[in-house]
Design brief:
The protein is an alpha+beta fold. The chain has 2 domains: 169 residues, Beta-lactamase (3-Layer(aba) Sandwich); 116 residues, DD-peptidase/beta-lactamase superfamily (Beta-lactamase, 3-Layer(aba) Sandwich). 44% of the residues lie in helices and 12% in strands. The protein contains 13 helices and 10 strands. The strands form 3 sheets. A 5-stranded antiparallel β-sheet has the order 2-1-10-9-8. Helix 1 runs antiparallel to helix 13, helix 4 packs across helix 8 and helix 6 packs across helix 8. The protein is globular and about 55 Å long. Bound molecules: glutamine. Glutamine binds next to loops. The site of glutamine has 11 residues, from loops. InterPro entries: Beta-lactam/transpept-like, Glutaminase. It comes from Cocleimonas flava. One of its GO terms (biological process) is L-glutamine catabolic process.
Length: 313
Amino acid sequence: MTFTVEDLQTILDEITLAVTALPAEGEVACYIPQLAEVDPDQFGIAVALADGQIFHAGDAQTLFSIQSISKVFTTTIALRKFGDDIWKRVGREPSGDPFNSIVQLEMECGKPRNPFINAGAITIADTIMEGRTPDELMEEILQFIREIAHDDSIQIDKKVAESELKTGDRNASLAHFMASFGLFENAVDDVLWAYFNHCSITMTCEQLAKAALFLVSDGLDKSCGVNVVSEKRARRINSLMMMCGHYDGSGEFAFRVGLPGKSGVGGGIMAVVPGKASIAVWSPRLDKVGNSYLGTLALEMLTQRTGWSVFGH
Ligand code: GLN
């Protein structure tokens, strides 16, 4: 593969031109009414190299709802606080079911299969709440993301959080069902409110690519020499993203893109090329399992052009 960093801007520009010229396919997430108001035909992509250089194209500086991508950050916080104890409460197997599925919870006595499906992320929110209010927990989550992205402007879109609360019957039923096994340490409504809020954080592709850089460099934030997590944990977070980051589309994503990645129903995808780069891509139209249609396609094109893959070199 003859790819040099000098080519990267051209590659991103060409991918942006190619995918935005395609006939529109997929739908925006309508089950959260506020997300349905987003212009569906936007597209942005940003690449942060391990040395901190950033390249971007399209709508890479437009804020969008990171949704389930936030689950990578809350899982990282949980690992920092409780280490391997978190695996007593969530598993680390792909679910093979939709992100909001309830079916496996009954067979597994309320223990979600992984931290990236809704039930798993709600459990992680309960784990890291530690008796505090949702606002206090949100302050901690926001602070963490601002630190790793080196950007204090990152905020929550409260309209999206309210919209999720109003239409959140499925998530409420998942939470109450898990709580019925006596597994929750905090009030279910508080945990849900924290969960809806962290899903409603808004970021740009550029901010998101920067925030993922610690996963590129074995847990180290190279810009300041701080270890966000240990090398072992960074690798494990990447493995979770690889196996579970796209719900029941995780196999397809690994097959087509070949990188650890985490998607959200806002249309974002954050992907990691260990040792080399982090990538954030965003386009609101989703495929039938809830992953960005053009985002996946763009990542597939980018990995073909660069040779980036965890399955070869
Ligand atoms: N907040 C969304 C939900 O709870 C997150 C889902 C997603 O991004 N896949 O349904």
